[in-house]
Amino acid sequence: MNFTITxxxxxxxxxxxxxxxxxxxxxxxxxxxxxxxxxxxxxMSGTDLDVGVRIQVPAxxxxxxxxxxxxxxxxxxxxxxxxxxxxxxxxxxxxxxxCGRSHFKLNGLPxxxxxxxxxxxxxxxxxxxxxxxxxxxxxxSFAVSTEESRPILNGVLWELSDGQxxxxxTNGHRLAKMTVPAAxxxxxxxxxxxxxxxxxxxxRLFGKEExxxxxxxxxxxxxxxxxxxxxxxxxxGSYPNYDQVIPRDNDKWAVVDRKTLESAVRRMAVVxxxxxxxxxxxxxxxxxxxxxxxxxxxxGHDEIEVQFEGDDLEIGFNAxxxxxxxxxxxTEEVRLGFKAPERAATIEPVSGEGExxxxxxxxxxxxxxxxx
Amino acid sequence: xxxxxxVLPDAVANQIAAGEVVERPASVVKELVxxxxxARAGRVEIELAGGGKRKVRVADDGLGMSREDALLSLDRxxxxxxxxxxxxxxxxxxxxxGEALPSIASVSRLTLETQADVAEPGTSIRVxxxxxxxxxxxxxxxxxxxxxxxxxxxxxxxxxxLRNTAAETRAVSDAVxxxxxxxxxxxxxxxxxxxxxxxxxxxxDLPNRVAQLWGDRAAEELIPVHxxxxxxxxxxxxxxxxxxxxxxRRTALFVHGRPFREPALIRAGDRAYRTTVAPETRPWIxxxxxxxxxxxxxxxxxxxxxxxxxxxxxxxxxxxRSIREALEGEASAATMDQDLPLPHVQVRERSPxxxxxxxxxxxxxxxxxxxxxxAPGPEPGQEVDGLVPEPAEPPRLWQVHRAxxxxxxxxxxxxxxxxxxxxxxxxxxxxxxxxxxxxxxxxLLFPLTLRLPAAEYEQAEALSGLLHQTGFEVEGFGGDxxxxxxxxxxxxxxxxxxxxxxxxxxxxxxxxxxxxxRNQHERVAMSFACKSAIKAGQTLDExxxxxxxxxxxxxxxxxHDVHGRPTVVRLSSxxxxxxxxx
Lengths: 372, 582
Ligand SMILES: Nc1ncnc2c1ncn2[C@@H]1O[C@H](COP(=O)(O)OP(=O)(O)OP(=O)(O)O)[C@@H](O)[C@H]1O
Ligand SMILES: [Mg+2]
Known about the structure:
The structure holds two protein chains of two kinds. Chain A has helices spanning 7-18, 71-80, 130-140, 196-205, 242-245, 258-271, 319-328; strands at residues 2-5, 32-38, 41-47, 51-57, 60-63, 65-70, 86-91, 94-99, 102-107, 126-129, 156-161, 164-170, 174-181, 190-194, 211-217, 220-225, 228-233, 252-257, 278-284, 287-294, 298-305, 307-309, 313-318, 333-338, 345-350, 360-365. Helices cover 19% and strands 42% of the residues of chain A. By secondary structure, chain A is of the alpha+beta class. In chain B, helix 12 (418-435) crosses helix 18 (542-553) and helix 13 (454-462) packs across helix 15 (496-509).
């Protein structure tokens, strides 16, 4: 293998790929990046076996070939190199790097040792704008579960159907769901359960303006835009019926300034138990009261103005869940819907007049049972 | 009609009494040593031959007796110790019946040698089967020596019940050991056939006496107990929970220096250990009680082995409470130290016997568990090895091996087992929440639908009320399926389903842990704590470490988890310095 590459391209490629390399691994080859030089340029790949990233960058290849080499080291070197062309060659299992008067030799491993990334065909895939994809990921993936006992909830549900795309995530205590219109989707509904780590790579590597093509191959999903590709294993199993738990009969509605509510809840959280984060919310005409009483610590009370319709209500929440959801609401005001103290509450953005975007965003929080 | 009731001649009465007072050599030794202690001896020496069956000899350096007193002492009901019934209740001395010497003398060949006053000659009296054979002057130092030979020589029926020499020797050694605990300030020496079985110098306090008797290791494993209530006062030593083992145990109860048996009080002590030791574990318990006059009757048993408290419940409660409090202290934590200083329990200074103390009995010779000033135990500032987190400066904490918390405290280091610590925290929280109606559960969007084996299903249904209070909202679904609508949230990585399943399994099929519970509430709380606590391997961030530490030390028993294992192991700066040779 022998090629010459600009420092910028080398650095771009290494930066993209090395973030997918596991920090701790017992498989030495996984801390390496796979270089593949072909007539079309150089491909660099990295994977932690769950998620893989591949990027193609332009290079002047004089001898095709492949080798794996330590990713983090190369990235650090590339960062410090002068802005001059870099020549990369191999000698056996060593990679040599020359740039100006700098010269490095690093020990690598044969490319055969590197796991093959899934062969996903993007021909018959789906398309999504970067903007749509990033917005969906941003607004939902925070809600995935980290509990090991229900692996299905460790992923984000991604539904593509005719004219719309939807992501749902939940840990069983709260749920985030976003639906956006999508020009060219599929005619049949498809569902993927995607590990959030892959979505993080998508967020990191793709821009808003990019058109992202998505392809599936068996148990794997690929995202591609330009020369950048992200591959992931999908989580298998059937996602719980989220639609069934979305309350349809909420009949108490509070509209409240998001920032005001957020800071009030944040204040309450200071005095709430660090374990349960329990706070109590009471709603009555034009007024929301927040209370917290934590044995051994103390208590707090706050009042904020709301527009409230419906019967008075008292309900308990994990303040951490409320804060998290409020952080992802983009509007000035939010609407909270309730039915009863033991039923799911909804939180939605309140969009201004004429701001109909067709985007639907809804979060659910299950209450904490209150004791009297 | 012929007269059928006759006053028994003394000799016969003594023999009958001897049947009750004197069972075996050990009871002879016990009576003689008690007399020596009553006479405020500073040193008591005991010699045995044939396990005491052939010979028992007890020598003391106490007050001694004049010739007149010496002769009187062999008369039934001759005692210098009780003048009226109120004295009897005052419990100042072991003796109060005036029965021991005559009883022993009636079933043996007894020689009494004594001298009370240097100005007068000593007296030697030889008695056989209760008959005085010889009284003569002798030269000797102050004190008394009683030699008892051929016990039961004239009562072959009783002699038959004596055990082999080894067994009798052991019984004597136990009796002396027990009395020596009640009187650490007195020196004891026990010899059998020329072999020294015990050689105890006067000790400064009970822990040192324990160390003399059973070794430093044993003494280090004991923590001091103090308590007071309703006129009762209690001091003593109990075993650190982590040192307690199943099987062999030592227990000793004293009231005003007087050993007694009372299984109910030991049981009360065991209750105090609940949730700090495994169920079969039998911690050592050594306790001394001081009681108000008139609240205990010591005259209920011929060998005075039992006493009767007027208000036994109050005493039991005091024992349980005081031990519990002792276990709350840091001294009860497991330690890595090699040479932990002995717990600090001071004994009353022995004041030399002399006039003004009112004859052969006075407080000074009594229970030596107490401090010189009569205060029950160490000053607050003198706490044992205070590795207490400095309040002004919060300790620095680190998680190590994703299993322990290392804390830098004023006097050393604490290592805290994160799982055990959280277990303790959860257990007390749930127990408390049972009183306040339960703890709040997190409602689930997707209720857990769990199939359970039939027995477990029944258990889950039966316990649904209590489970609900722990935060598990369980509903029977019919068949073998339960639905869990709400779950507790003890920590962010809580795995509700697994915890629930494990808990139901344990509660259905039992385990050593839940068998140690006192009632259903405790069973559920223990199982919950065990199955729901943060596990080893769980990474904790700085805040979580801090919170766990704070909550642990806010519990009643921070040093022990619910299985009876330690939550904290401490290493004192002193020990560190010693290890590094500084
Ligand atoms: N070692 C001794 N030193 C001094 N006086 C003694 C000693 N042994 C016995 N006496 C005297 O002899 C008396 C009788 O002793 P004895 O043991 O028979 O009765 P007690 O101790 O008064 O009562 P009890 O029968 O309950 O033991 C005692 O009251 C005491 O005055
Ligand atoms: Mg006596």
